[in-house]
Amino acid sequence: MTELFSIPLPVILSQLSLGLVNGAFYAMLSLGLAVIFGLLNVINFSHGALYMLGAFLAWIGLNQLGLNYWAALVLAPIAVGVLGIVIERLLLRHLYKLDHLYGLLLTFGITLVAEGLLRSIYGVSGQPFDVPESLTGVFDLGFMMLPRYRAWVVFASLAVCLATWYTIEKTKLGAYLRAGTENPKLVEAFGVNVPVMVTLTYGFGVALAALAGVLAAPVIQVSPLMGSNLIIVVFAVVVIGGMGSILGSIITGLGLGVVEGFTRVVYPELSATVVFIVMVIVLLVRPAGLFGKEK
Predict the structure, then answer these.
(1) Which of 7, 29, 50, 119 could join 234 via S-S bond, C-beta 3.0 to 4.6 A?
(2) CB atoms near residue 24 (< 10 Å)
(3) Residue 241: CB atoms within 10 Å
(4) Per-residue model confidence (pLDDT) at position 248
(5) What's the 3-state SS for 123-153?
(6) What is the C-alpha separation between 170 and 289, in angstroms, rounded?
(7) Is 291 inside any structural domain?
(8) Number of structural domains, the chain?
(9) What is the CATH number of the domain that holds 180?
């Protein structure tokens, strides 16, 4: 405790802001996983690879096609979303009535293919991605300096996460999505094309992962392994929040990012495992997760 008080306040706040940025990535990725699992009942292990692919498409667009950051922020998630639609139509749709293990193995195979392909082309070393000029510099808050890009990442992530939550939980479209997973034949009787709705839902879920990848590109170096290094933590976030819980994924992702940042200041050796320690404690107390529904 004495050591904590000896740490300068700007150092603590800087780590907490970085933790909040990481939490924003956790929130977006776990949100995409929660949407796909909650509405399609698929454990999408390829989510990390699609996050990585979004970052790589942004990097390729910037360095080889002359696209700026803002264009990549729009086009990369759309491209990955279309790829997700193709994956769902050709592969995943045949596994919905089978055990979860088949979907997990298929998506794990997709991860290995994506990572292996990009590793053979670009190697394992990270590729630098410059912060856009309009977001360089810092905000002087008086008690700390907050990089503009960190503030942008948190704002953009929160906006996307809350808009997704509102759409699924509070709109007619979201009601159709939820009903389509519970009783597809009844929803089809109202003239709704459930298979197309399911396909678009998967495409949207993986587009969220790609969007997180583009936002992360200037913060961490773009590499084929950036997704595999993160996906296990994100799965832990989803479990803690409650499998399939949209709001749980958002709150838990942001909260655990801050906890991780604080742990990095107080006890750095524990920062890599604190999320899993929290997961064990939560599962012992509430097996369905903090926001999950007990069966």
Answers:
(1) 29
(2) 27
(3) 30
(4) 86
(5) CCCCECCCCCHHHCCEEECCCCEEEHHHHHH
(6) 22
(7) no
(8) 1
(9) 1.10.3470
Beta bridge partners of 140: 145
What CA–CA distance (Å, rounded) separates 225 from 236? 18
Q: Is residue 114 part of a domain?
A: yes
Range of the domain at 249: 2-123+130-285
Structure tokens at 248: 């749980």
Determine the 3-state secondary structure of 15 from DSSP.
helix
Give domain status of residue 231, yes or no: yes
How far, in Å, CA of 147 to CA of 214, rounded? 17
Judge contact between 261 and 16, C-beta under 8 A: yes
In angstroms, the first-to-last Cα distance of the chain is 41
Mean pLDDT of all residues in 17-41: 84
**50 contacts 234 by C-beta, under 8 angstroms:** no
Query: In three state form, how does the secondary structure of 66-132 look?
Result: CCCHHHHHHHHHHHHHHHHHHHHHHCHHHCCCCCHHHHHHHHHHHHHHHHHHHHHHHCCCCECCCCC
The answer to the question of residue 293 being in a domain is no
Q: Scan for tokens 């956790």, then name that residue.
A: 26
Q: How confident is the model at residue 1 (pLDDT cuts 50, 70, 90)?
A: very low
Using CB atoms within 10 A of its CB, is residue 155 exposed (0-12), middle (13-18) or buried (19+)?
exposed
> Bigger pLDDT: 229 or 65?
65
- Do the Cβ atoms of 43 and 37 come closer than 8 Å? yes
The three-state secondary structure class of 73 is helix
- Report, as an integer, the average pLDDT of 88-115: 87
